[in-house]
Write a structure and sequence with these properties.
By secondary structure, the chain is an alpha/beta fold. Helix content is about 35%, strand content about 15%. It is built from 14 helices and 17 strands. The strands form four sheets. The chain has a six-stranded parallel β-sheet, with helices on both faces. A six-stranded parallel β-sheet has the order 11-10-9-15-16-17, with helices on both faces. Strands 13-12-14 form a three-stranded antiparallel β-sheet. Helix 5 links the parallel strand 7 and strand 8 (about 155). Bound molecules: adenosine-5'-diphosphate and magnesium ion (MG).
């Protein structure tokens, strides 16, 4: 049986810095092993863009998965070539093998249906059933996510089901107040979600890299901070829509700036409307962190995606830490979504069970909340939406 997992973990060289996604894959894999299946894992790592590149080998993930499962996971040297076929042929019941990074194959992410389909045919020839358990990729129309599902009897795995269950609670009648906290760096991607979120949530709290486009939309200088010039008008529209709809968009009142994008660049707190020309904003300030935390603590439902600042660097992690702490104090459902957000909370020392749910998918969960049809879910026989 073929199973798509999301093992796209952050690496520092060959060291996995957060194995959360691998751990999240374990329950389904263990269940399938106990049932005596021959398991072939399909997964990707990073963006090799259709080319074989050892930098993106799944070797570290296969090694970690072996340790966590307590059994050797054999990694093929290619995706659908001789090594893959031999690895699959040698597999015994209850054993687990992994193909190399599916994104080594140009067909995996191709926009051309026929090209993706041809690769999916090759995947399908390796097994008899398909389990879709890579929640982080279900919003992608890719060969191992979408096309493969239509070629074999299929089912959603336990992780995908659990993730969708939680997100359904956020979209169908959430307990109110429902607060959404957005930050991070994928600014234009995330701005698109806001249109829908301001209709479902009561309050939208904005920090991280995208906040500067909001501050600019209010007519403020943002210095050298991250800015999406061409989104300023759109954001101005969101601010107007929110006011008209009786919703609140909470923005920071102070910002931690530094002269350079560097871990040891000297931090300084300034007013959000007075960011110096030669500085860039790298975190929300302490006053904002306290205000954000207070909004979060009084919510009944919270969804948070995206660090409030460059949380990887100690001097700029205070905002993210304050928000994470507030989420742990919510009397209701708290959900953290996004690879870097999940890594940040673990890095800052919060245990996973301090939150209601830590989603393995940032983009996927945001698109679900946006109300979009996710191709990798829509194609599954038991998960039609
Ligand atoms: P997630 O993976 O949780 O969805 P993103 O990938 O969108 O989050 O963003 C995470 C990245 O955003 C982190 O690497 C962080 O350093 C960066 N970031 C947060 N705030 C800022 C900022 N003010 N300027 C630049 N980068 C930022
Ligand atoms: Mg990210």
């Amino acid at each position: 049986m073929l199973i798509r997992c999301d093992l796209n973990v952050p690496l520092d060289g060959e060291t996995i810095t957060d194995d959360g996604r691998i751990r999240a894959s374990l329950p389904t894999l263990n269940q399938l092993r106990e049932a005596g299946s021959k398991i072939i894992v399909l997964a990707h790592l990073g963006r090799p863009k259709g080319q074989v590149n050892p930098k993106y080998s799944l070797a570290p993930a296969a090694k970690r998965l072996s340790e966590l499962l307590g059994t050797k996971v054999k990694l093929a040297r290619d995706v659908v070539g001789e090594s893959a076929q031999q690895t699959v042929a040698e597999l015994a019941d209850g054993e687990v093998a992994m193909l190399e990074n599916v994104r080594y194959e140009p067909g995996e992410e191709s926009k051309d249906d026929a090209e993706r389909g041809a690769l999916a045919d090759q995947y399908a020839a390796l097994g008899d059933v398909f389990v879709s358990d890579g929640f982080g990729v279900v919003h992608r129309k890719q060969a191992s996510v979408y096309d493969l599902a239509s070629r074999l009897p299929n089912a959603a795995g336990g992780l995908v089901k659990a993730e969708v269950d939680v997100l359904r609670q956020l979209t169908q009648n959430p307990h109110r107040p429902y607060v959404v906290v957005l930050g991070g760096a994928k600014v234009s991607d995330k701005l698109a979600v806001i249109k829908n979120l301001i209709t479902t949530a009561d309050t939208l709290v904005v920090g991280g890299g995208m906040v500067f486009t909001f501050l600019a939309a209010q007519g403020h200088e943002v210095g050298k901070s991250l800015l999406e010039q061409d989104q300023i008008e759109t954001v101005r529209g969101y601010l107007d829509d929110a006011t008209a709809g009786g919703k609140q968009i909470v923005l920071p009142t102070d910002i931690i700036v530094a002269p350079e994008f560097k871990a040891d660049s000297p931090p300084k707190v300034v007013r959000a409307e007075a960011i110096p020309e030669d500085q860039l904003g790298l975190d929300i300030g302490p006053e904002s962190a306290e205000a954000f935390a207070s909004v979060i603590r009084s919510a009944k439902t919270v969804f948070w995606n995206g660090p409030m600042g460059v949380a990887e660097w100690e001097s700029f992690s205070g905002g993210t830490k304050a928000i994470a702490q507030a989420l742990t104090e919510v009397d209701g459902l708290s959900v953290v979504g996004g690879g870097d957000s999940a890594a940040a909370v673990r890095d800052l020392g919060f245990p996973d069970d301090a939150f209601g749910h830590i989603s393995t998918g940032g983009g996927a969960s945001l698109e679900y909340l946006e109300g979009k049809t996710l191709p990798g879910l829509a194609v599954l026989e038991n998960e039609r939406h």
